[in-house]
Amino acid sequence: MKLLWGALLVIMLLAWALLYGKSFRQYPRTATMQMEGLRLQRIAPPMLYLLEQCKVSQRFPLFFFKIQRSIQRISGQQRGGEYTMLFLAEMLSYSCLLLSGGCLLSLLMDGEASGFIMGGVLAVLLPVALIRDLQSKVKRREQQIILELPELLNKIVLLVGAGSTVQQAIKQCLERKRGEEEHPLYRELFQMQRECEGGYSFPQALESFSKRCGIQEVSAFTTAVLLNFRRGGSDFVLALRDLSHTLWEKRKAVGKILGEQASSKLVFPMVLLFIIVVILVGTPAFMMMDL
Q: How many CB atoms sit inside 10 A of residue 219's CB?
């Protein structure tokens, strides 16, 4: 059995080396591409080559689209396909590393198959965990936008009521948020401002902003602005105030969900502390009973 695991390990390493030698020149930019959560860009070319040869985007279009949609919401619309392929390559790279580690573990365990089985199970579970982590990041991003959007809308309502245009109001709000470019809402708003400065009309930039966010509440905000910003006056302010009330209710619901999640996360530590206290208190009592 040791010879079997050794041969399998050598075959896997040789196959990876051959694929790397064939593919690393085809993907020279993978090492410089940055996305939150990616760590194996430097060894991604072999897996990227396999994914392209297998035509994964054509054979599994629904799965590929879901991953691509999630990545575009986090990293932006530009180069979304490249980042999707890189994310899938990361999943395959982890699986190959775990399978290789399982073979090596079986070798160290005198040929027992349990090491390879453990590596195989992890090679299946880890990609699933990466996909779930990506989905949780998308959900967290949506929650951050929903929590911040009502406050931004309130400021816009006050500035528009004071006589500013919508564009001026948004610009003034962004000037006060120069240190928060990493927040998903303000990152997209700064991008919208750059598009306006680059020649886009305000409605075009606003529609692009709504598409990048991909959230119903942002779509409602942009729709209300596009329908009313040309008229201005009290009707526009009234429409924004009605929307602000709706968004504040949504923010309360999201805050309640986050509070429930935080309290549920505290249950396990509390139970663990309770067990430790019971052991600390009960152990001397049992020792005295034995005496």
A: 14
Residues 143, 254 contacting (CB under 8 angstroms): yes
- How far apart (Å, rounded) are the C-alpha atoms in residues 250 and 224? 17
Q: How many CB atoms lie within 10 A of CB 61?
A: 11
Q: Is the pTM of this model over 0.90?
A: no
Do residues 95 and 127 lie in contact, with contact meaning Cβ atoms separated by under 8 Å? yes
Helix (H, G, I), strand (E, B) or coil at 235: helix
CA distance 131 to 136: 9
Whether 254 contacts 146, CB under 8 Å: yes
Render pLDDT for 80-130 as a digit per residue (tens, 0 to 9): 778 888 889 889 989 988 888 888 888 777 777 877 888 888 888 888 888
Say if CB 119 and CB 102 are below 8 A apart.
Answer: yes
CB atoms closer than 10 angstroms to residue 120: 16
* CB contact at 8 A, 240 and 172: no
Look up tokens 């590393």; give the residue: 97
Tokens of 227: 């329908």
